[in-house]
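Field log, afternoon session.

UNIT: design team B
ACTIVITY: writing a sequence onto a fixed backbone
BACKBONE:
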């Protein structure tokens, strides 16, 4: 018997990237479902046949910025799987891309093959492989074809700035997106047997001579628009699939 996709959680670190989707879907905040000590926020509603939740990582009250990075992402994903019981999770956000892989500003990718960390350099057998992650990504080829988007390996790290060692690791896996959350969320998904699809919209080209942080700010609005467009298409398409269709 196949498992219908009825409940979907979308995990987003940066609030500005999530608000257009929350507004479009008319989702309402549920302040009672996540642990009250955590900064995460949950917005819920239905769309077509899906029960939808968008979970934000929340704000650092000390510095008035979003909680970005793998620590908040892992906690957010844990809360999602234990409190919301989704059939599928989606890691949605922006990322750095690579012109040599065919990316441009606003290109949107679905994750494929596996997720890696690019800034965990632990040259000890066993620990090296564990640190990199290599968490399997769902089979999204048919989904990507329907949506008309490309797929590729998504690579996660804790820094926005470029590092030669990080880029070397990214290139060794031919990753198409450099971001800060997906591998942590994929780890939680793997532990709980919940498939995690990453949807990443490109804000900056890592292999161009530029400052990633400046390009991120400059292109965030447009990349977020493209992200929202693809997320809406994905949400509309997911009910045509079952959980087993995403298996490898």
């Amino acid at each position: 018997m196949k498992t219908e996709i009825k409940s979907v959680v979308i995990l987003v670190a940066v609030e500005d990237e999530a608000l257009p989707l929350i507004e479009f879907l008319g989702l309402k905040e549920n302040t009672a479902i996540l642990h009250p000590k955590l900064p995460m926020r949950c917005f819920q509603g239905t769309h077509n046949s899906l029960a939808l939740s968008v979970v934000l990582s929340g704000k650092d009250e000390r510095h008035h910025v979003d909680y970005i990075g793998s620590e908040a992402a892992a906690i957010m994903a844990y809360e999602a799987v234990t409190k919301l019981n989704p059939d599928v999770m989606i890691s949605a956000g922006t990322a750095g891309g690579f012109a040599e892989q065919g990316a441009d500003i606003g290109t949107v990718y679905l994750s494929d093959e596996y997720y890696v960390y690019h800034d965990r350099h632990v040259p000890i057998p066993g620990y090296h492989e564990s640190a990199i992650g290599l968490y399997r990504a769902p089979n999204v080829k048919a989904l990507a074809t329907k949506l008309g988007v490309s797929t590729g390996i998504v690579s996660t790290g804790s820094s926005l700035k470029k590092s030669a060692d990080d880029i070397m690791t990214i290139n060794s896996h031919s990753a198409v997106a450099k971001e800060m959350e997906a591998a942590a969320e994929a780890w939680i998904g793997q532990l709980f047997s919940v498939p995690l699809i990453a949807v990443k919209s490109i804000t900056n080209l890592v292999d161009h001579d530029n400052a990633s942080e400046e390009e991120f700010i400059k292109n965030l609005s447009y990349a977020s628009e493209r992200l929202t467009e693809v997320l809406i298409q994905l949400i509309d398409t997911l009910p045509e699939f079952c959980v087993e269709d995403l298996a490898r």
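LOG NOTE: The longest strand covers residues 88-97.
NEXT ACTIVITY: expression trials, pending approval
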